[in-house]
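Side project, low priority. Logging it here so it doesn't get lost.
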Amino acid sequence: MSLTKIIRGAFVSRQKEIERYDKEAEALQMEVLHYLMSNAKHTEYGRKYSFGAVGSYSDYASHVPVNTYEELKGYIDRMRHGECDLLWKGSVKWYAKSSGTTNDKSKFIPVSHDGLQHVHYAGGKDAVALYLRNNPDSRLFDGKSLILGGSHSPNYGVADSLVGDLSAILIENINPLANLVRVPKKATALLSDFEIKRDRIARETINKNVTNISGVPSWMLVLIKRILEKTGKQALEEVWPNLEVFFHGGVAFTPYREQYKQIIKSSKMHYVETYNASEGYFGTQNDPNDPAMLLMIDYGIFYEFIPLEDVGKENPRICCLEEVELNKNYAMVISTSAGLWRYMIGDTVKFTGNRPYKFVITGRTKHFINAFGEELIVENAEKGLNKACAATGAQIIDYSAAPVFMDEHAKCRHQWLVEFARMPDSLEKFAKILDDTLKEVNSDYEAKRQNDLALQPLEIIVARKDLFHDWLDSKGKLGGQHKVPRLSNTREYIEEMLKLNFKE
């Protein structure tokens, strides 16, 4: 008998609970807020901002300031040194290492026991629950799960305290029963050298019955290509004939979609986008025909949103969930059961529905180009690249873009550095379609491109093979959740990449 059929019943009650999202979103969010206040009122931060007196959302908004990492960094560093009851009750032993701020190379995001169990793992379970609901013939649990993760290291010498990639934290703490259906072995999954890890995972999994894979699309692609090289196969289903789903997140899937179609040709393959950041698990794609994700609203996360045009203002407008408008860009603000209070995560989202609340990620508050008033965001870029690829037969491995503020002819433009898996039939055509599409989807960009006055046509520079891999390697950021900055408002990153691009 199929193990999946036996296990499937364990998810039914949760599937019914998620149905509450349709009509009870606001009530569920208030339950979360009260839970957070109750559990943190005796912490140092909770006493400072009178969590015990918070009875409503308006109370909370008036008591507690909006924070970035800089405002919470002092508390987090003390927590890392072993102090308790600062931002969240008790001690926090785990810290997810994330890309840095203006002043620091890295951020260290606290991952409490509550956050681990009732946010991150809850999200993973719900992703499976929703997938099983949508796929009654699934044999998910009849084989192995391949989870591609990062690594971790000791934290300040504090006993049992570690820092590392969120994926490594999840693998380290996973229920031992899950290890029975997971590959590779833990020691391999947590290796810090990605290239060694890639080869070992390939060796350990080639002969396994893998039914599902989870990870960041860019790094998973590197692993799959290595597996195909080792086996001499043309498609992954020749290696794993029962593979049925890829749970992916960390970077946008759009640039990689065509490459995955080339290496996984089975019509039975499913792709499920998830949004599991270091700070929390926020969303899961619940409809295979809709790219938007379901906002997970009954975990230990309370959500607020700042209209994108208000980001950076001294007194920005801030909306709770019931106040958001559809098809409008917002910066996400979260309060979590790991002690992140009214924390600006740095991601921007746009809601596509509110019964239930569904959203797409549109970019980063810091990853955009607005050098000339064009306000170009990642969502625009993905649409443009997707259209340009479709029209020219191109496939993209990775890309990064930045402004050229003024060249020797006093001309300004956007410069795109693109590594192709398959070159377009015409680079000029690719550039024009990308440029034209950006005009279509972004009126500010269109205005700045009018008659080439403020902005010249964009420039495409072809990146050499493995450029972005080598750049990440030079930063010590291979594997895990590390990713290439897509859009930058300065030339800091692209200049580093260009130097590597022309290096012999």
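Brief comment: The mean pLDDT is 92.
Revisit when time allows.
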